[in-house]
Amino acid sequence: MDFKLTEEQQMIKQAARDFAQTDCLPGVIERDDQQKFPQDQIKKMGELGFMGMMVSPEYGGSGMDTLSYVLAMEEISKIDASCSVAMSVNNSLVCWGLEKFGTEEQKQKYLKPLASGEKIGAFCLSEPEAGSDATSQRTTAEDKGDYYLLNGTKNWITNGNSASIYLVIAQTDPEKGHRGINALIVEKGMDGFVVGKKEDKLGIRGSDTHSLMFTDVKVPKENRIGEDGFGFKFAMKTLSGGRIGIAAQALGIAAGAYELALKYAQERKAFGKEIMRHQAIAFKLADMHTEIEAARMLVYRAALDKDNGESFDLSSAMAKLKASQVAMDVTVEAVQIHGGYGYVKEYHVERLMRDAKITQIYEGTSEIQKIVISRAIAD
Ligand code: CAA
Prior knowledge:
The protein has 379 residues and is an alpha+beta fold. Helix content is 52%, strand content 15%. Strand 2 (140-143) and strand 3 form a beta hairpin. It is globular and about 80 Å long.
């Protein structure tokens, strides 16, 4: 067992840290306040190779391992989780799924611009009545011979308006249940596809989350991913990898809040000494540091499982469950350590606390992760 990062991984971590400090930190409070999508930051992330990190260079990606992706996610999430969720969805839910299961034509046409960051992707599974219960898809993709007729509504779609390529999960044959579900590549601009309202959210407010409406959208058959009926398994396999990205995001949010709290505790004085010298605060920071390190081990382990070709369904679920809980606990304590300053926007920790909450909800709630974990250990 080797706990050391390679030289290349250290360089990627540093490059992501520098990018986050230089390009994401300025304006992060205003973007959160005004719900402004980080357009310039995402463009730069594309130029730096962060939008298709694990995609082979043959398709315009950076050809890196999952651990490198996790390191970059962690550093960017320390500063701006709205940037990192766009990155996570594009990398693990869209690019990875297309590279792993797409046809050569799909890779040439869709993966290349997504991996280079020229275009942004979205993953469309959730519906008004199908969140955790993902097999209950109401969106239909009726087989019309050489095309599918797509009808329905998707909810809470990350990159909802900024994306131009959407992977849409829909039911083709209800009699077959989840085995009748397909995953289709839908382009913005297809007739009958409308981007609906933008959600006004508690956290990750820079990220654009929308509902999407499909009315008689004709999706060519060649845009189906995998065999007929592979859509649900496609979604599940893709989400297992996505959960590593969100676990890394949660880890970054926690580590970002911890770094701010530690610095503050070393500067702020009360009762004649730095508050770090008061055991009440020092013990909080000791717990935060330990919990973050425990979460980090689980996140790296899941990334290594994926890189080593092992099953990562269980390790990604455990990583997300733990890291998202740590993100919540640590950010709440970071606000507490900052006292009154923690409650105002200028000090960043209140935003990190709001951002942390979504990591316990999207890409499978913590309760769903417990279903995945308990089923795996029962087998
Ligand atoms: N890999 C491959 N196949 C899998 C799988 C996996 N990881 N997990 C399940 N499957 C297969 C099963 O083998 C089964 O197929 P067979 O019947 O052919 O064997 C099929 O999928 C159905 O599985 P289950 O019977 O286990 O289905 P279930 O109804 O009990 O649900 C679940 C399983 C784990 C709860 C699943 O519904 C789930 O993960 N729900 C959460 C959905 C989710 O994560 N949504 C997030 C939305 S996306 C998002 O948030 C993105 C964003 O924008 C940030």
